[in-house]
């Protein structure tokens, strides 16, 4: 099945696809986070620790979705150990940024708003890190294809 983003020029296709995967991931992460911060107090968990646990569990679950979406749809690559490692490093950085922003914003706003602001602001940084991780493979592939083409022409 060809999706509408397939008709876009290659240089903007990954940006549009990243936005689709990222926005859906943001919705998944925030819905889980919101659900957990509503559910955990019913089980006796309260306070900043509960908020951080809720955020972390939601982040990990969303990360699984995001890796598959980023691999197959955004950058049209099969998951492998190399891009999985780069993805985990980028998401580790993103997690630290999100947790820092979450705890910073909780000083100024309630935990529900702080969560969504932290998720959205860290998304831009994450795109550039992931673009490097998944596109680096393309550069090596293009170089080897160019070398093979040049050798064939000789």
Give a description of the structure.
The protein has 154 residues and is mostly helical. The protein is 81% helix and 0% strand. The chain has one domain. It contains 4 helices and no strands. The C terminus is likely disordered.
Approximately what portion of the residues adopt beta-strand conformation? under 5%
The overall pLDDT, averaged over residues, is 80
Instruction: Give a quick account of the main beta sheet: strands, pairing sense, barrel closure.
Output: none
The total of helices stands at: 4
Low-confidence stretches: 147-154
Count of folded domains: 1
Report the radius of gyration as a whole number of Å.
19 Å
Task: Spell the H/E element sequence.
Answer: HHHH
Structural class: mainly alpha
The strand count comes to 0
What is the terminal-to-terminal distance? 39 Å
Q: Give the % helix.
A: over 70%
Q: Which descriptor suits the 3D outline? A: elongated
Topology:
Layout: H1 10-39, H2 48-74, H3 81-105, H4 111-153
Helix pairs in contact: 1-2, 1-4, 2-3, 2-4, 3-4
């Amino acid at each position: 099945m060809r999706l509408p983003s397939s008709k876009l020029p290659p240089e903007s296709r990954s940006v549009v696809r990243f936005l689709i995967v990222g926005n859906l991931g943001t919705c998944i992460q925030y819905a889980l986070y919101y659900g957990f911060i509503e559910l955990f107090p019913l089980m006796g968990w309260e306070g900043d620790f509960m908020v951080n646990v809720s955020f972390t569990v939601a982040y990990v679950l969303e990360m699984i979705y995001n890796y598959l979406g980023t691999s197959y749809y955004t950058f049209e690559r099969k998951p492998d150990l190399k891009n999985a490692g780069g993805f985990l490093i980028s998401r580790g950085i993103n997690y630290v940024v999100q947790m820092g922003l979450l705890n910073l914003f909780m000083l100024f706003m309630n935990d529900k708003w702080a969560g969504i602001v932290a998720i959205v602001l860290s998304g831009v940084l994450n795109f550039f890190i992931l673009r490097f991780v998944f596109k680096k493979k393309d550069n090596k592939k293009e170089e080897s294809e160019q070398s093979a083409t040049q050798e064939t022409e000789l």
